[in-house]
Specification:
By secondary structure, this protein is of the alpha+beta class. Helix content is about 35%, strand content about 25%.
Length: about 170
């Protein structure tokens, strides 16, 4: 219950806070997040960053929340007995950058994908009770506040590829 309250408060805060968009070095931010969270490190999980990652225009605190939520889902939604594996890379999409988070987890069917960003929605699976059902709502809302968007490609039993698309930082 405490985690649910914390997530709802985070969503409320995100919706109301004033955010300043600036250049964010995604690769540096990712490495810091992984270093701070034991569940994202070996031997618990294997997270591969396909360097270099393109910088984006965003809000660092909001991006930290987005990345943490996406990595948490990738680590949590795996078949029992399998080590979570996540690969992260970026690709240019016009004037934006798409940040990909590909896992080898349980995946999800199309119906689940369509309602996944709704509040209190859980992906079915062995660890669905581990979350509050608010995480992807937070990610979607944060992406929108940073003039971006969130998407997913997934197939049941074959993993998921979430993407976060944000304005590209000018070089």
């Amino acid at each position: 219950m405490d985690r649910l309250i914390q997530d709802v408060l985070a969503l409320s805060h995100l919706s109301q806070q004033e955010i300043k968009l600036e250049v964010v070095e995604i690769e540096k931010l990712l490495r810091e997040i992984i270093q701070e969270r034991p569940e994202f490190q070996e031997p618990v999980a294997q997270i591969t960053i396909s360097s270099p990652l393109e910088p984006v225009i965003g809000h660092e605190a909001s991006l930290t929340q987005c990345i943490t939520n996406l990595l948490s889902n990738g680590v949590r939604f795996v078949a029992r007995g399998r080590k979570p594996q996540i690969r992260i890379w970026t690709e240019p999409v016009g004037e934006e950058v798409r940040i990909w988070f590909e896992d080898h987890g349980i995946g999800m069917d199309r119906e689940t994908q369509q309602r996944l960003h709704a509040m209190f929605t859980h992906a079915p699976g062995p660890n669905q009770s581990a979350g509050t059902g608010v995480g992807l709502t937070i990610v979607r809302k944060a992406a929108e506040r940073m003039e971006g968007k969130l998407g997913v490609e997934s197939e049941l039993g074959k993993g998921s590829r979430f993407w976060l698309q944000l304005p590209r930082a000018k070089k």
